């Protein structure tokens, strides 16, 4: 039990991923997040202050990103206060890049909350109804519901990690939401990608704009997305070369002194 470990002043560290209450001043405690600033529209200043107040309780904040101008999270992980000790730990992803032949002209990679997932799915099916190439649609759902799609579509409800990695590597273009985990996975796989952030999700909207400014990776709002706007996607921007890594020497932090 955690309480027993704390009571005995164990040297075991507690790593918290957005679980605000799991820390102790008796053992090394680490918080993991890329959101030192929490975007919430007009209330960003207060949500960011609250989050930073909670992070300060931990010994260090590990940021899953690179410490360079080519970082992925932009202002989300940028903070001027020296009261929060931060350490960039690199890009986290289960995937690894390799060269394999292309099979899919377009991969439509869906995720996120309803009803926006379904609204986006319906729009993509309509927009690609006259597309001459082949389309792989990964719906991002666990139920077995079926949908009607054009004959050039291959539809799967979800893919396991190895299958998803292969599908991305085999695709000439990936259209996806701009959630941070998705961004890290696509960056590691050096994917040619177009982002459509989930409406009213301020973090996704910011990240899409940030990646466009840094890498010229195109994005569209869900309302404005049109197939004819992406016909020349080969000429668009791409990620820099990233490699997923987790430096094991980070755990030296938890060693007793």
In short:
This protein has 257 residues and is an alpha/beta fold. It has helices at 2-7, 44-55, 116-127, 161-169, 180-188, 202-215, and strands at residues 14-16, 29-32, 60-63, 86-88, 104-109, 135-138, 153-156, 171-176, 193-195.
In words, what does this structure look like?
The strands form 2 sheets. The chain has a 5-stranded parallel beta sheet. Strands 1-2-3-4 form a 4-stranded parallel beta sheet, with no helix packed on it. It contains 6 helices and 9 strands, in the order αββαβββαββαβαβα. It has 257 residues and is of the alpha/beta class. The protein is globular and about 60 Å long. The chain folds into 2 domains: 2-91 and 245-254, no CATH class; 104-235, Glycogen Phosphorylase B (Rossmann fold), CATH 3.40.50.2000. The protein has helices at residues 2-7, 44-55, 116-127, 161-169, 180-188, 202-215, and strands spanning 14-16, 29-32, 60-63, 86-88, 104-109, 135-138, 153-156, 171-176, 193-195.
Rg result: 20 Å
Using the coordinates shown, work out and report the CATH topology of the largest domain: Rossmann fold
CATH homologous superfamily caption of the largest domain: Glycogen Phosphorylase B
Total of DSSP H or I helical runs spanning 4+ residues: 6
Would you identify the regions where 5 or more consecutive residues have pLDDT less than 50?
A: 1-18
Biggest sheet statistics: 5 strands, parallel
Q: What is the beta-strand fraction?
A: 5-15%
Q: Would you list the SSEs in sequence order as H and E?
A: HEEHEEEHEEHEHEH
Tally of separate domains = 2
The main sheet orders its strands as 7-6-5-8-9
- CATH hierarchy: architecture of the largest domain: 3-Layer(aba) Sandwich
> Could you estimate the helical fraction of the residues in percent?
10-25%
Tell me the total number of β-strands.
Answer: 9
Q: What is the 3D form?
A: globular
Mean pLDDT: 83
The helix/strand class is alpha/beta
CATH class of the largest domain: Alpha Beta
- Span of the ends, CA to CA: 23 Å
């Amino acid at each position: 039990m955690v309480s027993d470990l704390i009571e005995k002043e164990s040297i075991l560290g507690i790593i918290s991923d957005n679980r605000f209450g799991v820390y102790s001043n008796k053992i090394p405690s680490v918080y993991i997040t890329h959101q030192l600033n929490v975007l919430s529209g007009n209330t960003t200043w207060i949500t960011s202050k609250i989050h930073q107040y909670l992070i300060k309780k931990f010994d260090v904040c590990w940021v899953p990103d690179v410490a360079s101008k080519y970082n992925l999270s932009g202002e989300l992980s940028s903070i001027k206060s020296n009261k929060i000790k931060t350490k960039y730990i690199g890009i986290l992803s289960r995937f690894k890049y390799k060269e394999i032949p292309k099979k899919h002209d377009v991969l439509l990679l869906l995720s996120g909350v309803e009803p926006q997932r379904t609204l986006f799915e319906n729009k993509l099916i309509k927009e690609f109804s006259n597309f001459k190439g082949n389309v792989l649609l990964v719906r991002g759902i666990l139920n077995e519901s079926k949908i009607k799609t054009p004959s050039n579509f291959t539809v799967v409800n979800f893919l396991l990690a190895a299958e998803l990695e292969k599908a991305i590597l085999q695709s000439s273009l990936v259209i996806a939401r701009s959630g941070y985990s998705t961004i890290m996975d696509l960056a590691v796989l050096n994917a040619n990608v177009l982002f459509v952030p989930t409406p009213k999700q301020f973090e996704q909207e910011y990240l899409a704009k940030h990646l466009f400014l840094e890498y010229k990776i195109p994005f569209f709002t869900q309302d404005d997305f049109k197939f004819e706007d992406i016909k020349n996607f080969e000429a668009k921007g791409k990620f820099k070369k990233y490699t997923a890594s987790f430096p094991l020497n980070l755990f030296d932090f938890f060693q007793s002194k």
